[in-house]
Amino acid sequence: MKTRRFAALVSALTAVTLAAACSSGTNAGGDDKNTLTLASVDQGSIEDVVKAFEAANPGVKVNFTTSGADQYQAQIRTQLSSGTAPDVMTVWPGNGNPGATYVLSKPGYLLDLSDQPWAAKLPDSFKQVAQYEGKTYNALFGLNGIGAVYNDEALSKSGLKAPTTWTDLMSFCRDAAGKGTPAYALGIQDNWVTQLVLYALAATVVFGQDKDFNTKLAAGQTTFAGSAWTQAMAKYTEMDKAGCFQKNPLGTSYEASQTLAATGKTLGIIQGNWIITLLKGKNPNGKFTMTALPATDNAATFLMPAAAGAGYGVNAKAKNKELALKFITYVMSPEGMKLFNEKQGSLPTLPDAGTTVDPGLKQLTTFVGENKTVPFMDQLWPNAKVQQTMLSGLQEVFSNQATADDVLKDMDTEYKKGE
């Protein structure tokens, strides 16, 4: 397994290096006071935000690159430590991955944004994951959720109905597979995608039983391997065995999974709400609806993962710090937030954004309003290695190189190491 991981890492880093060499470069034009450099994972939504920012600031040019989360996380720490990072960059909330707030703030890579006018307006739940040691480093503009997203037309043509219980889900998957149109597209060639089905299940299975699970985990009163996480893992593998996903998820990229769901090759996809915009990009006339993924037979107990999505931070050594702050201010303004949210399909973090929420997100909006949500599980884990162990471990589960119990035990080992 170690050899395979090393080879995969070398391959990923090589791809990143080649991509950087072939692009304009995240540092291109960084010495020009009217040029901003930006690196983002918000493919499909950052483009219009950049255009609007440039239009509002005549003479300003934003040189930006977009990449998948796996590639981005593999390179951003190296760029920051070597002094080649862009002025503004995607930063995730909390502590869950190599590009997260705590991970990048601790060594001093990010600029303190506490004095920005929007920082004090963030709700307390968002401040907790946007700050490190009481200082704000992350401009969080959107609230995201995870659930089952259905292609309404494909679902209607199949003659099936979206499942509302776990028993229904198993029948739904078997029936959909029998009709030759699998229920859900799964693109776990990109390893960050592996977590989403598990998080959607764990919201109900783990936190539905015990909302204080994370507190107990931090206090050493429970473990992943000795808790309801084993049930969530078992349901994930049960879904795979029931034919819920298309053939060869490990050979399917995130991009390819979007195409499957958008074009009706599958009835849907289990993803974050941001996927709706991407699906509409591939099928402009399509309609897509998100629901909670059934994890038990009691729909009244369903919870959805919902939390602040990735935001933007400023490089502490930005070559154009003034323009970087101007861009962050725009992102967090009602105009910028509304544009970003509506393009991304997210909910706003500040109440005055005036965002028109996609009608396909009605159930997510209801769950948020009724406090039937739990944070993305990794955001308050003590280090990024816990999530990385989970992601690579889940790929190994799908390739029969590890068991779910192995993965949970490995996660416990990394969790106990702390920060």
Automatic annotation (TrEMBL):
A Pfam match: SBP_bac_8
InterPro entries xrefs: Bact_solute-bd_prot1, SBP
Keywords on record: Cell membrane, Lipoprotein, Membrane, Palmitate, Signal
PROSITE patterns: PROKAR_LIPOPROTEIN
Signal peptide: 1-28
Taxonomy, superkingdom: Bacteria
Name recorded for this polypeptide: Raffinose/stachyose/melibiose transport system substrate-binding protein
